[in-house]
């Protein structure tokens, strides 16, 4: 019905109210839709803004990662350069140090009064400390640079322990300590040189920090591992220094009358680095005033029962052989070292001829009536000449495999392999006269 035909006022009001309500509802719906539209736009803007921020952050992170990678590469190169520098510098440093060792040893043999002998011993201890510091710093540099490649082989603990006992027994007896080693016939898989150095450092600390009682080095089988234990009755390590003992130059709190002569605080730092390189976990427990036990877990080797036979078959180096009248050909380019070595050998009643190169070696052997009993050669001579080459030339000239010894400050595996290939002994500079004399007596025997 058309609205103009409605004459009921109340009905018109109701219709008007219904129309108004419909219009209001329509407007509300439109308002809600617009509000949602605005919300969507705002969210899209927020997402775009956050996306831009994230992209910017990722770009900065990428640049930062590139910078970090470059810095890491530079640090590694610097570390390797430091290692190469130390290796090269150590050879130059060890040359005069070696000459000093030899000269002091020769001086010690001509001292007659106690005051002179005392001064010589003080100089010897200072030289040994300097020697230990140089070699330790070089070892730390190599380990930190990751250039040490362990040579994993079967290692007889009995042989290793016998060697360590001969090194530390005199010091233990001097301090009135009991020093015991128990290895059984155990054989482990490790690098013999590194493992010996680890045990040497720990045993050295144990003897140094123990005033009464003693040191016991033993082992226990644990499944497929062998646990090497070094126990002492020393002053112990306080709880708040348990981690610090593995830091460089840390020596801890010690009793005032404890003898720490020669201690540098680097032994356990080397131990941590070497055990990490070998994958041999090292732990310890300690009670202040009662002592410390260090434990090293090393993989057991197959055929452990052969260890005792291997140890028994190794001939023991004879001691006490004299060198009187021994003819020595000494090949050394450094004049100070050559003079000091000559003086020492002559004090041992040896006859010495010297050369500084391969060519000079043949000149020294020109008199075929003089045939050396032994050849001692520095490995790195002038102009790239090598002691190993000089030894080979001398042997060829003489027509016989004269016993020979290479002495060098070069700690690389290359020199070790060269000595092994030509069948000669190897000693590191600076030489310790007592060890040199024992080795010469062994070679001559």
What features would you describe in this structure?
α7 links the parallel β8 (327-331) and β9 (351-355). The chain has eleven helices and twelve strands. It is of the alpha/beta class and 445 residues long. It has helices at 9-110, 114-145, 157-175, 192-208, 267-278, 307-313, 335-347, 358-364, 387-398, 413-422, 433-444, and strands at 153-156, 178-181, 187-190, 214-222, 225-232, 282-287, 291-299, 327-331, 351-355, 374-378, 404-408, 425-428. It has three domains: 3-73; 153-313, Heat Shock Protein 90, CATH 3.30.565; 327-444, Response regulator (Rossmann fold), CATH 3.40.50. Mean pLDDT is 79; it is low at 305-321. 55% of the residues lie in helices and 15% in strands. The strands form three sheets. A five-stranded mixed sheet has the order 2-4-5-7-6. A five-stranded parallel sheet has the order 9-8-10-11-12, with helices on both faces. It has a two-stranded antiparallel ribbon with strand order 1-3. The termini are far apart.
